[in-house]
Each structure stands twice: as C-alpha cells, then as structure tokens.
C-alpha cells in the first residue's frame, strides 16, 4: 500500500466512525419512532395472521396470506430489535463519552 491509499483508507475510517457515532447517538425520540414502526408492523402482521386463519377456509390463498403476514411480522420484529440495539449502543456511548 502506498501513502495515498493509506491516507484514503484512514479518511474513510474516520468518516465511517463519525457516521456511526452520529447514528447511534441520535435522539431517543427518533429511535422510539423506529421502534414504534417496528412494533406496529409486528402487531399488524400478527392480527393479519389471526384474520387469515379465522376468516379464510383452508386453501392456497390462506397459506399465501399467512406467508405474507409472516414476512410483515418478521420485518417488524427486525426493525424493532434494531431500534432497541441502537438505543442500547447509544446509551453505552453516552455513558462512555459524557
């Protein structure tokens, strides 16, 4: 590696570090909005699974509806858990640097 590549890599690392710090130290209001979105999608998916199971008779349409609902549940779960991890890391960073 020559000096120019090393300098670019160093600049990239500092930019990435600053971006991650800004992401994880966002306001709790913003992080809670992300969590609320995830939990809302999770709840919507669970209600639609229940609705598909109760309202549709056993058929391929019912299975497709449940599959789509499961994808909504999983995406909501992932969004909510990522928000919780973001909140936890933000609190740890706040404890360390302040």
Structure description:
The chain is mainly alpha-helical. It has one domain (3-97). 90% of the residues lie in helices and 0% in strands. It is built from three helices and no strands. The protein has helices spanning 3-24, 28-55, 60-97. Helix 2 (28-55) packs antiparallel against helix 3. The longest helix has 38 residues, at 60-97. It is elongated and about 65 Å long.
Structural key phrases:
98 residues, mainly alpha, 3 helices, 90% helix, 0% strand
How is this fold's topology laid out?
Blueprint: H1 3-24, H2 28-55, H3 60-97
Can I get a quick summary?
This protein is mainly alpha-helical and 98 residues long. It is built from three helices and no strands.
Tally of distinct domains = 1
What characteristic shape results from the CA principal axes? elongated
- Rounded to the nearest angstrom, the distance between the terminal CA atoms is 37 Å
Please indicate the percent range of residues in DSSP E strands (runs of 2 or more): under 5%
Q: What structural class do helix, strand and pairing data support?
A: mainly alpha
Return Rg in Å. 21 Å
Secondary structure tally, helices: 3
Number of strands: 0
**Fraction of residues in H or I helices:** over 70%
Give the overall average pLDDT.
Answer: 93
Order of helices and strands: HHH
Q: Unreliable stretches, pLDDT < 50, 5 or more residues?
A: none
Biggest sheet: strands, sense, closure? none
Keywords: Membrane, Transmembrane, Transmembrane helix
Protein name: DUF4231 domain-containing protein
Transmembrane segments: 37-56, 68-89
């Amino acid at each position: 590696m020559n000096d120019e590549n090393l300098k670019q890599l160093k600049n990239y690392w500092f930019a990435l570090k600053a971006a991650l710090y800004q992401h994880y130290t966002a306001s709790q209001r913003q992080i809670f909005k992300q969590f609320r979105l995830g939990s809302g999608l999770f709840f919507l998916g669970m209600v639609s699974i229940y609705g598909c199971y109760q309202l549709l008779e056993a058929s391929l349409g019912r299975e497709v509806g449940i599959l789509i609902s499961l994808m909504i549940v999983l995406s909501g779960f992932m969004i909510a858990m990522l928000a919780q991890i973001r909140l936890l890391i933000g609190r740890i960073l706040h404890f360390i640097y302040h």
